[in-house]
């Protein structure tokens, strides 16, 4: 098949938007020209954007794409690109909002096309009752042989594909975390928590998931990656951590130096932390469903996840949070359950994203004593008086 002729036919003769045709052509280009074409197209435009306006360096990808400089970058010819790239980019901008959105939808298409749907399959209604769900931690989801349903497709699929589809559909498509597109294997491999419906049927539905990374894997931690440790992150380390009883359980020394930057705190943390095998990072926590269902599943996923982490012997978990519901809830808890250490406005939302950590035994106690009804009440009451910036 002549790929250039096929692209020209799609662009100049078909004219009308046809995403399925675009995806099929793109698969051919991936196979025959470059398996990293999405990365190349997007990062080339982002590089041009940052040359046009250096201030976009501090933005995340979603923020960059919304900038005037990005729109200007699309008018710049890229002489090194093969003709296929130029034609494909024109088709992408005809059918999609931007290259990042196309990349996300293409990855979703590739998963769903492995499990063709039929007209008889429909999503069943799941109850919003705590007792209707259970959870487990799977050490390596890629090696799991079990099949699962998700709320994003009517056909069952492998656990690895199910978690990846959830992350693509929620964290990337809905939330705009396009940075994740460059590291999708984090979603499809490794140790993951999953929240499942209780059912007597052979295949159950996943409604929540999260990846768990150990201290000896911290070279891959999101919390310590360049994007989450640059100077744009403002420290907000609370004085209460110095006087908290948890301090003696976490650090080797009782004397905390002045921690006036996120770098000084993380250096101190790394050098003085006790029992590093009791510390983990939780990332890519995602839930599926309608707005109301997601509020419930976010609460229940956290409740079950904390129990599972406590059972594994973890005391502290690094987390990155932009969910106002969670931040408002933490503020009202009596025990020291969560500490923020830094925050940043990522420019594609009207609220800040926070880096911090859970104190797992304390949070487990609080969550075990909290019903979903009380959780909603606490969050709504605290939202009116929240001290968190721009929630």
TrEMBL record:
Recorded GO MF terms: N-acyl homoserine lactone synthase activity
Keyword annotations from UniProtKB, A to Z: Autoinducer synthesis, Quorum sensing, S-adenosyl-L-methionine, Transferase
Pfam families membership: AHL_synthase
Family matches, as InterPro entries: AHL_synthase
Reactions this protein catalyses: a fatty acyl-[ACP] + S-adenosyl-L-methionine = an N-acyl-L-homoserine lactone + S-methyl-5'-thioadenosine + holo-[ACP] + H(+)
Enzyme class of the recorded protein, top EC level: transferase
Entry annotated with the keyword Disulfide bond: no
EC number: 2.3.1.184
GO BP terms in the entry: quorum sensing
Source organism superkingdom: Bacteria
Family under the similarity heading: Belongs to the LuxM / VanM family.
Protein name listed in UniProt: acyl-homoserine-lactone synthase
Organism: Vibrio aestuarianus
């Amino acid at each position: 098949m002549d790929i250039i002729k096929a692209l020209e036919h799609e662009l100049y003769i078909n004219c009308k938007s046809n995403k399925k045709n675009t995806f099929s052509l793109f698969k051919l280009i991936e196979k025959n020209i470059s398996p990293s074409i999405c990365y190349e197209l997007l990062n080339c435009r982002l590089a041009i954007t940052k040359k046009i306006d250096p201030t976009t360096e501090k933005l995340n990808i979603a923020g960059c794409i919304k900038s005037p400089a990005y729109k200007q970058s699309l008018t710049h010819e890229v002489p090194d690109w093969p003709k296929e790239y130029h034609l494909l980019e024109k088709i992408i901008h005809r059918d999609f909002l931007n290259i990042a959105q196309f990349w996300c939808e293409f990855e979703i298409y590739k998963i769903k096309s492995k499990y063709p749907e039929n007209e008889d399959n429909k999503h069943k209604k799941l109850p919003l009752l705590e007792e209707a769900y259970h959870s487990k931690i799977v050490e390596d989801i890629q090696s799991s042989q079990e099949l699962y349903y998700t709320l994003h497709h009517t056909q069952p699929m492998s656990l690895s594909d199910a978690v990846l589809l959830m992350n693509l559909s929620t964290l990337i498509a809905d939330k705009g975390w396009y940075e994740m597109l460059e590291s999708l294997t984090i979603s499809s491999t490794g140790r993951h928590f999953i929240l499942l419906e209780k059912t007597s049927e052979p295949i159950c539905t996943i409604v929540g998931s999260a990846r768990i990374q150990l201290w000896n894997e911290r070279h891959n931690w999101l919390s310590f990656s360049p994007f989450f440790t640059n100077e744009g992150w403002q420290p907000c380390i609370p004085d209460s951590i110095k006087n908290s009883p948890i301090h003696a359980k976490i650090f080797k020394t009782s004397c905390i130096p002045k921690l006036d930057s996120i770098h000084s705190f993380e250096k101190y943390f790394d050098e003085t932390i006790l029992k590093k095998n009791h510390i983990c990072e939780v990332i890519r926590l995602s839930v599926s469903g309608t707005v109301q269902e997601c509020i419930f599943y976010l609460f229940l996923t956290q409740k079950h996840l904390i129990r599972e982490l406590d059972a594994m012997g973890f005391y502290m978990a690094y987390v990155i949070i932009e969910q106002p519901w969670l931040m408002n809830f933490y503020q009202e808890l009596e025990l020291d359950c969560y500490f923020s250490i830094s925050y940043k406005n990522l420019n594609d939302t009207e609220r800040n994203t926070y880096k911090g950590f859970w104190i797992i035994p304390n949070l487990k106690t609080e969550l075990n004593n909290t019903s979903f009804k009380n959780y909603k009440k606490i969050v709504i009451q605290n939202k009116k008086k929240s001290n968190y910036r721009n929630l």
